[in-house]
Structures are given as C-alpha cells and as structure tokens.
Amino acid sequence: MHITYHYIVALVIRLILIIYGIIQDNVLKVKYTDIDYHVFTDAAEYVLKGDSPFKRHTYRYTPILAYMLLPNILVQNAFGKIIFSVLDIFTSILIFKVLKNHGYNADICKKSSFMWLYNPLTMVISTRGNAESIMSTLVILCIYLFQKNKPSLCGLVYGLSVHFKIYPCIYAISFYFAYSSAYTSQDNKFKFLFLPNKNKLFYMFFSVIGFAIPTVLFVFLYGEEYIWEALLYHVSRKDIRHNFSPYFYVLYLSEAMDSRLPMFISVLAFITQFLTVFITAWVFHSPRLLPISMFIQTFCFVTLNKVCTSQYFLWYICLFPLSYPSLNIKFKQIATAFVLWMASQGLWLFPAYLLEFKGYNVFIWVWIASLIFYSVNMYLICLFVKHVKCKHDSKKYR
Hints:
By secondary structure, this protein is mainly alpha-helical. It has helices at residues 3-27, 35-48, 63-68, 71-74, 79-101, 106-117, 120-127, 132-147, 151-164, 172-178, 189-194, 198-222, 224-236, 247-254, 261-283, 290-304, 313-317, 320-323, 331-357, 363-386.
C-alpha cells in the first residue's frame, strides 16, 4: 500500500475516534474530551466577543491557540480536534521526509513514520483535544528546514515554537552547534562549535524575530495578563499532586512550612537540566545526529523537571521515530524498554488514582512509584545513549 493511503486511513481512524468521543461525552459520566479542550474553546469564545482569552480561568497558552479554535464556536465544537488530528498526520509526513532526506531507504522511513501515525497514544491525545500535535509539527518542521539548509526559515519556525511553549528553548544549542562549518579532527572543537558563521547568525536572528513578533504583539494586546499567565506561570509552576516527578512529595511537604526548599529544588532541577542539555548537544553535535540529540535532550529535560505530567511525554515521543534509525538496537530491546516504561507508569497511576479519586493517604506509595519511574527513565536514557550510531552510511543533512 502506498504511504499516501496510510495517511488517509490514519486520518479516518482519528475522525472515527472524534465521533466516538462525542458519543461518550453525551452518554457516559467519564468524558472522552480533555478538560483543556474546553478551556481552549471557552477562550476562543472570549476572543470572538472581543475580550481577552485569559478571562477564561486556567487558560495559560498563547492567544494564537484561541484564535485557531474560533471555528469551534462558528462551525462545530469538534473542529479543533480535526485540526489537531490533521497536524498529527502532517507530523508523520515530516518524519518520513526528514528520514528520506537523511538517506534512509523507503522501508525504514515508512516504519519510522508509522511509529507516530499509528501510535494509539498520539491518536487518543489529539482526538481528545490536546494541542500537543502543534508542538510536534513545529519541532520536526524545524529539523526539516535545517536539512534543507534554510537557517532563516528554521529560525522563524523555531522562534514560533518557543512562543507556543517555552520548552523548545532547550534545542537552541543543538541547532547552533549543528550549523557549524565543516570540521576535522585537527580543528579546535571549542572554536568550531562556538564561533559564529553566516548560518548561525541567520538562525539566531530569525529565531529572535519568530519569538518576538507574536510575543510583543500579545503583550501590546493583553498586557501583564499575557505575561503572567502565558509566560511566567510555566516558569514558576508547582504541581504537588498530579506529578510523576520525585520532587512532588518534597514540594507537597514544604507547602506547610515557611521554607526556601522549593526555591532550592527549582535551582537544582534547572542546573541538572541545563548540564544534561548542554552535554548532549556537545557530544552529539554532528548535523546527522541532530534528531537523536534533541530526543535525548527532551527525555532528560522531562525526566529531571520539577513538574512531570503525561502530556510532556509527547515532547520526546515525537522525536523517537526520527532517532530510531540512528540507534544500533534490536527491536526486541525497544519493545522491552517500552513495556518497562509503560509498566512503571501503571505502577504510579494506580496509587495516584487512589489518592485523587478515593482520597486515600498513599503519598508515600505515589512517591516511591515516582522514584521507580524516574529510575526507569534514566535507564532508558543510558540505553539509548549507549547505542547511538555515531558513524553510519546515510548521507549528510546538507
């Protein structure tokens, strides 16, 4: 079957899930639609009335998202889910194109793109109304534009992705290093990676433009409300219950005390995240290893973050199909790793359910499960780093 037909089939499956979701929402007490989708839609309604989207309590996203979902009010409430599902398909197309440009054969490109296209997790998340498919599209589009040696466009899209959500800022150093000129073993590696060149300057300049234009526009339109809700909230956020991070229990206990512990944890998390992001970019600075560098950076960043929720997992899952061909690892090992990863989540989800819905005092159990999940993630990161193919026969990006 030609890959185009797979895109059509995958889109049809998502549309069926959207229809099913409408039925479940109207029949069952447990709703299919993500609560955030209602937040997006309410914000769009405020925008349509000429008000600020931030009048909707808990709306802490770029106003662009509210504008995108205006058809939810004007056409049909499920329109946004269709947008997210189409972006899901577009992400898979980009995965195929990136790997094809990278020199892999069509069979590897298809298998890798199918990891996203037919992934039940991505299907459910987009059809429930979660907007993470926007981020996966923007991030992988940056890699595609990097391959095409278009530093200005790459910078613009990258800046826009950081405007949408702050976390892609961790990729800045990887793109900067990857835009370095040709390198030989006799060159000074430090100068080679850090000294600017034309591509680096174009990339940096247009990254600032891509971030600044929408950000300044919305500061002008919505003022401090936008700054606090869409930007600063995500920096200062604390989550003491719905959280896979081992930090959650310490933060929970510190709530009852006048303590500087939360600040210490924030600094500790930032330092460990910065070091792992920088070291990964330094080690895997080759242009052909950009996807695996970004994948490992994101995996480390999410695992080490002081707040870790399930939607963050998509940040690195979307990069895994691009990274898989660069790993000298058997499918059996990948399958085992996936089962281990899912099992450690299940171990956390059960006590978390007892805590949140039954009110049982199982904080210690949840915290131990968080430590196990953290350990599994660190094991997987080490496994992937160990099996990176630093040399292979596929052609260079540029």
